[in-house]
Automatic annotation (TrEMBL):
Belongs to the NadC/ModD family. This is Probable nicotinate-nucleotide pyrophosphorylase [carboxylating]. The keyword Methyltransferase does not apply. It catalyses: nicotinate beta-D-ribonucleotide + CO2 + diphosphate = quinolinate + 5-phospho-alpha-D-ribose 1-diphosphate + 2 H(+). Pathway: Cofactor biosynthesis; NAD(+) biosynthesis; nicotinate D-ribonucleotide from quinolinate: step 1/1. Its EC number is 2.4.2.19. The lineage of its organism: Bacteria, Pseudomonadati, Chlorobiota, Chlorobiia, Chlorobiales. GO terms for biological process: NAD+ biosynthetic process; quinolinate catabolic process. It comes from the Bacteria. Hexamer formed by 3 homodimers. The keyword Glycosyltransferase applies. InterPro entries: Aldolase_TIM, NadC, NadC/ModD, Nicotinate_pribotase-like_C, Quinolinate_PRibosylTase_N_sf, Quinolinate_PRibosylTrfase_C, Quinolinate_PRibosylTrfase_N. Residues 32-117 form the Quinolinate phosphoribosyl transferase N-terminal domain. NCBIfam families: nadC.
Amino acid sequence: MSMIQKDCSDFYEGCRSRAIMLALEEDRYTGDITTMATIEDGQKGSAVVRAKEDGVVAGLEAARQVFAACDPSLSVVLHCADGDRVKKGAVVMDVKGPLAPLLLGERTALNFMQRMSGIATRTREFVDRVAHTGARILDTRKTAPGLRYFDKDAVRIGGGVNHRFGLFDMILIKDNHSDASGGIGPALNRARMFREKHQLDVKIEAEVRSLDELSSALAARPDRILLDNFSLDLMREAVEYVHSMPNKVELEASGNMSLHNVREVAETGVDFISVGELTHSVRALDLSMTIDLG
């Protein structure tokens, strides 16, 4: 069976729309009985979303899609764009229209925006910390199940770079793959043959744990090499060694990356730094929605 890569735009759109509908469904199920009990049919109102702390806002388009799913007649006015820095108290969004669907979508919209804004804010901190170097901040697959599209979109909005989305868009040979294949060299050779056979337009990356593995990986010509848990001194040595080779290979650093050490890692000369905490240890940005009946 052919495995030629296809345009993934429909897949990504499906991830986004399905997650939004599932989030609404798990909240309302048989209906918003509080709103049904207290709000008159046809009653209209408006709401203002404000930042309760400084940060980078993200998830505005997700929120717009949430309200559209609740009622297409709801009017959403954005006062900033995804990726903008906002100050505490800043108005982020206005929503106007029928009050019942507005209240139905309130928590779901805020959940998406708060999580995504938290990720974007943290990502921007990392990006700013390494801005004087050529290193770029990568995300990982350590995302909340079902929310990967939004988690990775938030990293992009925060100035980071998306690594592979899933298991289908890059060949990434980790330690278990190379050990099971008899070494990094044989694993890379198999990967290159597989990519050619199936006409895959994807990169091949190999994780290495030592300078010896690095040397073996370079001989098999991957597109990128991941330096796993290298010390700073060993990382500098690896960068110097790779840069002395005639063929350009991208270098990615990974393993226990934090704001405390990312600057020093970037200054070794690596091309990418993958940071799991961007998405696996999210602190949501505090946002609030206030209803106005006037």
